[in-house]
Structures are given as C-alpha cells and as structure tokens.
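Supplementary Note 3. Input sequence used for the single-chain structure prediction.
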Amino acid sequence: MSEKLTEISSREFAKKLSAKVSVPGGGGAAALVGAYAVALCSMSANFTTGKKKYAEYEDDLQRILKQGDMLRERLLDLVEEDEAAFEPLSRAYGIPKEDPERAGKLEEATLVAIQPPLKMMRVIAESVLLLNEMLVKSSVLMVSDVGCGAMLAKAALTSASLNVFINTKSLRDRDKAAEIEAEADELLSVYAPMADSIVDAVTKKLRG
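The predicted structure, written as discrete structure tokens, is reproduced below.
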C-alpha cells in the first residue's frame, strides 16, 4: 500500500507537488493549506483558553477547539480523497475517443472529481467562521495568527474553487454544472470577503 500524502514530510510533499505527476496537485494543496488555516485558529484558541482575561469566552474556546480539530482532520482526509477521485478521471481520459462509452464514463468520472474540492470549500467556509469568532475572542498576543489563518483560508477556498470550475467546464450536463457552480460561487461570495475583513481588522489592530 502506497504511503498517504498526509503522512510524508512537508519537504517530500512539496517535492511531489513540483513533479510531473497529476497528484498531488492544486486540489490537494488547497486542502492542506485549509488545514493549516484552521490549525492556526486552534493555536490561537489554545493559547487563549484558561486565561482570566478571557474567562467569559472559555466555553466558546472549548467549542472552537473541538470543532477546529474536526475541520483540520476533515481537510487532511480531503487531501487523500482528492487524489483518489482523480484516478478514475485519469483513466477515463485514457479511453480511446472512438469508444462509444468514453463520453459517459468521462462525465461520471468528472462528477466524482468535483466532489473533493467542493467539500473542501464547505469545510473551509466553516473554518472562516471560527476564525471570525477568534478575531474577537483571541488573546491579543495571538491576533496575528488569526489573521494569517484567514489569509490562508481565503487562498485555500479560492484554490479549491478553481478545481471545481475546471471540471464543471467540461460537464455535458450543463444544468448540473450550473447547480455546482452556484454553490461554489455562493461560498466564495460570502466567505472570501469575510476572510478579507478578518485580515483587515487584524492589520488595523497591529498597525492602527
């Protein structure tokens, strides 16, 4: 059994990402960056919990820590799911063009390949909500980490969306493509600006 992408070193992952292989690619990188984003959220919560100054937020911090752990692990799982979902798509592209079953198999495999990056977007959106909460409830000493998390979350969200759109572009079922794109667009329209607002607020706190 081959080694999981999330179980190799960061150096080895980057090396694989730079190689002439299809996976890991943009999708896996997006999921990993998303995991780092929510990890920074958890870090800020871990350094804030237990402090008297922030006692009023203690229950919220414990909830954020629990949810953050779940989101981080889910995003790491999606690194692997993205790799697995690409395999049938790669095989479908290898089917001879004259094969009458090619179009159907390619459509089916494309729909499978769309799912991991779309799931990433949903999970990253939840991470942005946690980061937005930590903007208020974090120790002032950790506010820069909250801002870094938000910046990474926006990058991950946008990157995952590109991996959705490159596949919806080739779907023959345009109604299904429109449905998927509408969800991705909604997630982008709500959570990318939210991430930006977090970064702006952190910048003001640090430089204002």
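The chain has six helices and no strands. The chain has a mean pLDDT of 95.
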